[in-house]
Amino acid sequence: MTASRRPQSSPNEQKLRLMKPRWAFGLTFVGAVLVAGGIFYGLVVLLDFQELDSTAKLDAKTLFDLVKLSFGVVAGAGALVALVVAYRRQRVDEAGAHREATRLHAERFSQAVDKLGSDSPAVRLGGVHALAGLADDAPDNSLRQTCIDVLCAYLQLPFTPDPGTDPAHQEEHHRYLAFRKVRHTILRLIGDHYRRPKGTHRSWQGCDLDLTGVTIDGDMDFGGATFSDGIMSFAGALFSGGSTSFARALFSGGTVSFDGALFSNGDVSFDGATFSGGGDVTFENATFSGGDMDFGGATFSGGTVSFRHATFSGCGMHFDSATFSDGTVTFDSTTFSDGDMHFDGAMLSGGDMHFRGATLSGGDIYFDGATFSGGTVSFRHATFSGCGMHFDSATFSDGAVYFGSTTFSSGDMSFDGATGPAPQGLLTAVGTPPPSGVTLPSAWLLSAP
Q1: Which of 139, 181, 249, 305 has its Cα between 20 and 30 A from that of 332?
Q2: Containing H/E element for 281?
Q3: Whole-angstrom Cα distance, residue 418 to residue 251?
Q4: Contacts of residue 102, Cβ cutoff 8 Å, sequence gap at least 6
């Protein structure tokens, strides 16, 4: 999936918009008359003026006052003209300054892009920092987005893999490491800029990041970053080795996509992350082989986290002590093999969690000490083959946990010490009396039909 772009006007399309002189004069004059009338009326009310003396005669003092008033009106009109002229001059100066800033930005942009095409890794590294600086100083969001797009495009370019450390390829190996440093520097700069508060200097929050199909062969740190608005795409990306961290990140809008990505022998951490608002984080059709995915202590209070049709092979999933109060987390049609899932101590008080149609073979799923006090957890049509399920000391109250049409084939199931009503459809799915390896509270067995 390629990140879509919101239409933005280019600097060349931005024209100086000035009000026509006759309208500017007219509106300014009317405004001045209204203000003067308001002041006059206020003074009349303040002085408790009752009525004009109809017998008053025009004397020299009154005539002199009228002359002064006439000159005052002329002076006021002149001031209005000067004000309008100053306004127009300021707008023209601002437009000129913007054009000059845009011209300088374009010159620096061309120089930075030329550096990215250099055969020297050091020169390319300089071009990366130059483009990042240009994005920071860009006079408008459109130019900032252009700089970010170029950095993302560089990461999407194919590169020569590591030839190895064989002495015959030592020079090529060093060259590979040098260019690898350039790519890792771009990823580091992106993470740094997304940690800066939105609206402050050097913040890229709200901008789009198109990292579709990139290869990330090392550590990537987006810990503490904020993703609000905008689109970030890692669709089809390859994460090979190293660790990817979104620990303590905030997802409060926009879209982050890992659809179709491949995570190979590396850890992915969303530890302590917060998912709120209407944002979506999707891992649909992604493949996880080896390593662990950690959502421990994460907070789900809105939005959607989707693992539909994802494949986990020898990969552990951790949602220990996570809090689910709203939003949706779905594992529909997901395949788990030879890996454990942990929801120990999780608090589910709202929202939805779905394992509908999921297949779990090998490994175990743990909800030990979890609390189900609201929301919905559904295992409808899921298949457990050689997979253990553990709900020891779990608490079931108002939450709706469904096991309708669930298939259990071997594997242990334990609800030892669980309290509250039995999950819907559980007794039907396991059968009564329960087979060997299935441990249920005695109160549930007594209530069975």
Answers
A1: 249
A2: strand 280-282
A3: 33
A4: 11, 139, 143
User: CA triplet 310, 313, 314: central angle to 5 degrees?
Assistant: 140
Q: Which residue has the tokens 């130059």?
A: 130
> Both tokens of residue 414?
């334990």
Residues 6 or more apart in contact with residue 260 via CB below 8 angstroms: 1, 235, 236, 284, 285, 286
22 burial (CB, 10 Å; 0-12 / 13-18 / 19+) is: exposed
**Range 210-215, long-range pairs (CB < 8 A, 24+ positions):** 210/2, 210/3, 210/149, 210/152, 210/153, 210/156, 211/152, 211/155, 211/156, 211/237, 212/1, 212/2, 212/3, 212/156, 212/236, 212/237, 213/156, 213/237, 214/155, 214/156, 214/238, 215/159, 215/240
From the candidate CATH numbers 1.10.3470, 2.160.20, 3.40.50, 2.40.50, the one assigned to the domain spanning 206-446: 2.160.20
Half-sphere exposure of 348 (CA within 13 A, CB side): 29
pTM flag (> 0.85): no
* Distances 43 to 48, 67, 270 between C-alpha atoms, Å: 8, 22, 66
Return the sign of the alpha-carbon dihedral for residues 369, 371, 375, 376: positive
Q: Are 391 and 367 in contact (CB under 8 A)?
A: yes
Q: Taking the mean position of all CA atoms in its chain, how far away is CA 293?
A: 19
Residue with tokens 């101590």: 345
Q: Is 305 helix (H, G, I), strand (E, B) or coil?
A: strand
| Residue-level pLDDT, tens digit, the chain, 449 residues | 444 444 444 444 444 455 555 565 566 666 656 655 555 455 445 545 455 455 555 566 665 665 566 556 667 767 767 777 777 677 776 666 667 767 777 788 888 899 998 999 999 999 999 999 999 988 788 889 999 999 999 999 988 888 888 888 888 889 989 999 999 999 999 999 999 998 888 899 989 999 999 998 888 899 999 988 889 999 999 988 788 899 999 988 888 999 999 998 888 899 999 988 777 899 999 999 888 899 999 999 888 999 999 999 988 899 999 999 988 999 999 999 988 999 999 999 988 999 999 998 888 899 999 999 988 999 999 998 888 889 999 999 876 888 888 888 877 889 999 999 888 888 888 887 888 888 999 888 877 66
All CATH 2.160.20 domain ranges of the chain, comma separated, are 206-446
